Amino acid sequence: MANSLGPGADQPGYGAAPSEWGDWLARNPLSTSDWGVAYFEVLVLCAFLVFFAALWGVLRRADGEWSWLATAALGAGLVSTTVKLASGPIAIVAFDRNDSLSPDVQTALIESNGWSFVLTFAIDGVFLLCAGALIVATRVLPRWLGWLALPFGVLCILSVLGGYEGFPGILLFFLWVIVTSVYLIVRPGSPEAAT
After folding, report:
1. Does the CA dihedral 15-17-21-27 come out positive or negative?
2. What would the DSSP string read from start to end of 3-60?
3. Where does the pLDDT of residue 169 fall: very low under 50, low under 70, confident under 90, or very high at 90 and above?
4. Which end of the chain is more exposed for a tag (fewer CB within 10 A), N or C?
């Protein structure tokens, strides 16, 4: 969320000196549009909760030894969303209380928010791997969705290694969620129709 709050071309990067963050925060108080973006992010994250629950409802139709993956996928989705929601206020405090916080504390808050976000790439990867494996094994949804989720999941997990400067694995997660959502809305038929 820190990346969307008060964005500017001169925003310090990861590892910047605390004085740079302190100066930047003093020059860039939160505007109405920044708050609008933050609220929009919260709405998107709430929509993810609905998506995870709906997908779990579809995936749990799979019987047998693979059915536990539906619950694992739901759990990973809920944990990822929780981490994202919980880390947002950390950055907001750095912006909102910039007059009373030292630059060291501000930097720690913003970088904590950023690292929380980066770590969710791995959790999103676990979600994709669980959902993908279940779909491929049981055909509860079209297998191509499962085959797409598997490499995306691995790449999401590996993207954490790049940290702030690495590939944003969440883009693959978003792509899969959008494609799957469209499929579920346009073709919500029975599992047999999904083969």
Report:
1. negative
2. TTSS--TT---TT--HHHHHHHHHH----HHHHHHHHHHHHHHHHHHHHHHHHHHHHT
3. confident
4. C
* DSSP designation for 65: T
Share in percent of the chain as helix, strand, coil (round to 5): 75, 0, 25
Cβ proximity of 25 and 98 under 8 Å: yes
Is 38:61 a contact under the CB 8 Å cutoff? Answer: no
Rounded mean pLDDT, 122-143: 94
Please tell me the distance from the alpha carbon of residue 97 to that of residue 155, in angstroms, as a whole number. 37
Cα gap 111→16, rounded to integer Å: 10
Which residues are within 8 A (CB) of 188 and not within 5 positions of it... i.e. 6 or more apart?
A: none
Confidence of residue 29 (pLDDT cuts 50, 70, 90): confident
Three-state DSSP state, 104: helix
- The two tokens of residue 29 are 């108080």
Contact present, 134 and 69 (Cβ < 8 Å): yes
Phi, psi at 14, each rounded to 5°: -60, 140
**pLDDT by residue (tens digit) across 94-113?**
887 777 888 888 888 888 88
Q: What is the mean pLDDT of residues 147-153?
A: 96
Mean residue pLDDT of the chain comes to 84
pLDDT number for residue 6 = 44
DSSP assigned state of 160:
G
